[in-house]
Amino acid sequence: MKPITLEEFNAYAKTCSEMKPNLWQFLTQLSFDKHKRVVYQNNTLIVNVKIEFIRNDRQSEDLLCKELIFKDMHFMQDVSIDKIDDLLLHIDNNVVFKKFLIKSINEEEIKGSTNNVWIHKDFKCEECIIMNYRIVSFCVFAHNMYGNFTFNECEFENFFYYQAEFHKFNFYGKILFRACIFKNNTTFINSIFHNQVDFKKSKFCDNPHFNNAIFKESADFHECVFEKVACFYGVTFEKVPNFSQATFEGSVNLVNAKLEFDFENVETNIKETHKAYHQERQENKPLAYFANDFRDSFRLFKNALIKDNNLLEASQWHKLELYCKEIELDSKKSKIFSKEWIDKWVLRFYRATSEHHTDLLKILNNVLMLIALFGLFSFGMFCFAQKGDIGYAQDTQAVW
User: Fold this and answer.
1) Of 21, 176, 229, 371, which one is least surrounded by beta carbons within 10 A?
2) Is the pTM value of this prediction over 0.90?
3) Which sequence ranges are marked TM in the entry (predicted)?
4) How many Cβ atoms from other residues are within 10 Å of residue 86's Cβ?
C-alpha cells in the first residue's frame, strides 16, 4: 500500500475552507477508504502505512497545517517529517509510534525550526529521531517515556519538565543527545534514566539542572561544554559516568551526590565499556585507553571542586582517579621492577592500607595492627632474651 504523503494532506487541507485542518480528521477520512491504510478501532486510529510529510527541497510546497496533534493514534509503520519548518507538535494520550523521524538536512545544511514539541501523556515509541532542528520549547508533561530517543545536532531554546519539582520522570529507553546545544532553561530534575544516556559533544550555555536525577546505566558526557554552573545536586550514578575531555567553565554543584564506587565497581564498569565498544565498532582498543578516559573524568571533577575550595569532596574523586590509574597500569603487564610495575604496587599498597588516604577507620585499623605486631614482636624478643639469660646462668652455675 502506498504511503500517506504531504501532497495528500495538503489536498485535504485546501478543502477546509471554514475550519482549521486537523490530522485526526484527515486520518479519519482515510479510514473510509477501501484500501484500509487507516482503520478505526476501539476509539483509536490504526495507521498501517508509512506517513511521509517530506519536501524535496525548500522551494517545493510546504505543509499547510503546521500544528500536528497526535492523539488516539497507533502508527504501525514509520512517520517521517522532513524539511518542514515552524512545526508545533503535540503528543497526547494513547499514541504509539514505531519510528518517528523528524529531520532537516539539505544541501545548504540549514537547521529547521520547530516552535514547540509538547509531550502531554506517556509516550511510546520504538525509536524517535530528531535531526538538525532548532526547537524553541521542548516540554515534557508525561511521567513515563518508552523507547529510544535520539537528538542529532539540535538546538534547544528550552528543555524542561512540567512541575518537575513534584514528579518523577522515567525514561525507559536510550536517550542520545549528540552534539546538541542547550541555550536557556535546561531541566532534567527528578529524572530516572533506566537505560543509557549520552550527551556526547553537547553544549550547555546556561545552568543545566540534573537535581536528584538517577542514572541507572552508563551516562556519557564526553567532550561536553558547561559554560555556567553544572548542577548535579543529589544526583545518583549507579555506574561510573564518563566526563572525559569535558569543559567546566563555571563551577560544579555535587552536593549530596551519590557516587559510592569501590575499586571493583570501577574496574567492572571499565571492562564493560571496553567490551561494548569492541562489539559495536569491531575495534580492539586496549583497556588502558578506557581506564584513562574514566581517570580524566574523575580528574575534571576533582579540579572543579578544588577550584571551589571543596577539598574534602575532591579527595573522593582523587581516590577514584587513582583507582583508574591502577587499572590502567595493571592492564599493561609491565616488566618486573620497571617504573610502571613499581607504581602499580605502590597504588595497591595505598589502596589496601588507607583507600588512598580517604578511609580514617582503615588507617586507624592498620596503625593499631602495626602497634599490636610491634608489641608481639617486642614481647617475643624479650621472652627470647630472658630465656637466653636463664640458659646462660644455668650453664655458668654448672661450670662452677
Assistant:
1) 371
2) no
3) 363-385
4) 14
Query: How many whole angstroms separate alpha carbon 169 and alpha carbon 215?
Result: 12
Three-class SS state of 374: helix
**Domain limits, the chain:** 4-264, 265-385
Type of residue numbered 363: I
Cell of 144: 513515563
Q: Which residues, listed in sequence order, are joined to residue 47 by a DSSP beta bridge?
A: 38, 75
- 3-state DSSP call for residue 232? coil
- DSSP class of 194: -
By DSSP bridging, strand 87-91 and strand 67-70 are parallel
Please, are residues 193 and 238 in contact by the beta-carbon 8 Å criterion? Answer: no
- Contact between 231 and 207 (Cβ < 8 Å): yes
User: Whole-angstrom Cα distance, residue 46 to residue 96?
Assistant: 10
Cα–Cα distance measured from residue 145 to residue 188, given in angstroms and rounded to the nearest whole number: 13
90 DSSP β-pair partners? 69, 118
For cell 554552573, name the residue: 229
- Is residue 270 within 8 A of residue 327, CB to CB? The reply is yes
> How far lies 311's CA from each of 305, 314, 363, in Å?
7, 5, 19
Residue 9 to residues 37, 61, 87, 362, 386, Cα–Cα distance (Å): 14, 12, 15, 71, 106
3-class DSSP state of 82: strand
